[in-house]
Amino acid sequence: MKKIFTNMDQSRVGLHQSFLQESGIETLIKNKNAPYKQEWPELWVINDADYETALNLFKELDTKLSEPIESWDCPDCGENIEEGFGECWNCGTLKAS
Fold first, then answer.
1. What is the model's pLDDT at position 65?
2. Mean pLDDT of the 59-86 span
3. What pTM did the predictor assign?
4. For 87, which DSSP code?
C-alpha cells in the first residue's frame, strides 16, 4: 500500500479517490476524521502494482481540472452557460466532456 495524495481539503481527497476508483483502482483514505490542521486526509493506493497507473491518471485529472471551461449551450434546456461553469444553472445538466 502506497500513499499517493494528501490535502487539507477532504473533498479534494474524495474527488481524487472517486477518479481512481472509477478506473478500477482500489483506494483507502486515512485521517478522514482527524482534527482539523493536526493531520490531513491521505489517499492510499491499496495495490502497489496500481501506483504508477494512478500517478498517470492524476496527471490526466490535473490536466482536466486546469482546462478552462468555455461558454456552452445546455443540450437539455438550451440555456447559454457562461464560461467557467460546468453545470447548467437552469436545469442542473453537467457539461459533456
1. 66
2. 84
3. 0.63
4. B
Would you list the domain boundaries of the chain?
Answer: 2-66, 68-97
Pairing of strands 72-73, 80-81: antiparallel
Identify whether the C-beta of residue 95 lies closer than 8 Å to the C-beta of residue 81: yes
Cβ atoms of residues 13 and 43 within 8 Å: yes
Phi, psi of 87, deg, nearest 5: -140, 140
Q: Which cell numbers hold the place of 70?
A: 468555455
Residue partners of 77: CB distance under 8 A and separation at least 6: 88, 90, 91, 93
- For the domain spanning 2-66, the CATH number is 3.30.70.1530
Q: Are strands 2-6 and 42-45 parallel, antiparallel or unpaired?
A: antiparallel
